[in-house]
Amino acid sequence: MLRVEGLGHHFDGVEALAEIDLEIAEHDVVGLIGPNGSGKSTLLNMITGIYKPSAGQIRFRERIISGMVPHEIVSLGIARTFQNLRIYKRMTVADNIWAAQHSLPGVSLRDFRSGKQDDQIEQLIDVVGLGPRRDELAQTLPLADQRRLELARALVRSPDLLLLDEPAGGMTPVETQSMAALIRDVALPGRTCIIIEHKMDLISALCGRICVLNFGRKIAEGPPDDVLKHPRVLEAYLGMDGARHA
What does the alpha-carbon distance between residue 17 and residue 51 come to, in Å, rounded to a whole number? Predict the structure, then answer.
């Protein structure tokens, strides 16, 4: 489904990514891990058209998408969440989700202005556990619920490829377990997914394969049990405990 070939990116001459190869088949769930600054979010930004590659290319369903702009890539069936939340804080939960599908066929600005919401949105609000907060402003939600809202905004587009950038960032252990269950039961069925996360328990529970970046280069790839024991991965995380809990 997704193929990254020899991908590289520079910021003002500084190498952020280099020679990244990654192939993801239909319905794969791949964890993307690495220390802070290793290039994980940069890779997602390149897949979604926010950054243009300095080298290499990206193919989605055999179509070259590197160089396309974000809205074109989204229209192909790719959606994402962000490490730094991209929600409309002064809009309600329901309107946030509606706004995320504004460019889809059949979605009318007239419906938004009239307050009309379709059944899919109402069901999605309930499924992600935000039913009681449907008409609350996003800025009033606790962080865990804001992340649920961000996930719902991605899911409302019914993407084939879902990219999650630290979906449990800032959450407590209990909140993290709840988010992991939500991703497993709601987000993953029938989809292909890449998950960036520092919480190895979540990655190990959800991902069949892990790709590890360090200083912008891939240093390991394979099943979680093997990768988390890899000497270069342990070294990158400054010790076994760091590798499992960073």
Answer: 12
| Tens digits of residue pLDDT in 32-57 | 999 999 999 999 999 999 999 999 99
Burial bucket for residue 177 (CB in 10 Å: 0-12, 13-18, 19+): middle
Is residue 135 assigned to a domain? yes
pLDDT at 111 over 70: no
Residues 122 and 172 both lie in one domain: no
pTM of the predicted model, to two decimals? 0.89
Based on the structure, what is the number of domains in the chain?
2
Q: Are residues 113 and 206 in the same domain?
A: no
Domain carrying residue 133: 87-152
- Whether residues 97 and 213 share a domain: the answer is no
List residues bridging with 40 in a β-sheet.
Answer: none
Domain co-membership, 176 together with 121: no
- Three-state SS for the chain is CEEEEEEEEEECCEEEEEEEEEEECCCCEEEEECCCCCCHHHHHHHHCCCCCCCEEEEEECCEECCCCCHHHHHHCCEEECCCCCCCCCCCEHHHHHHHHCCCCCCCCHHHHHHCCCCHHHHHHHHHCCCHHHCCCEHHHCCHHHHHHHHHHHHHCCCCCEEEEECCCCCCCHHHHHHHHHHHHHHHCCCCEEEEECCCHHHHHHHCCEEEEEECCEEEEEECHHHHCCCHHHHHHCCCHHHHHHC
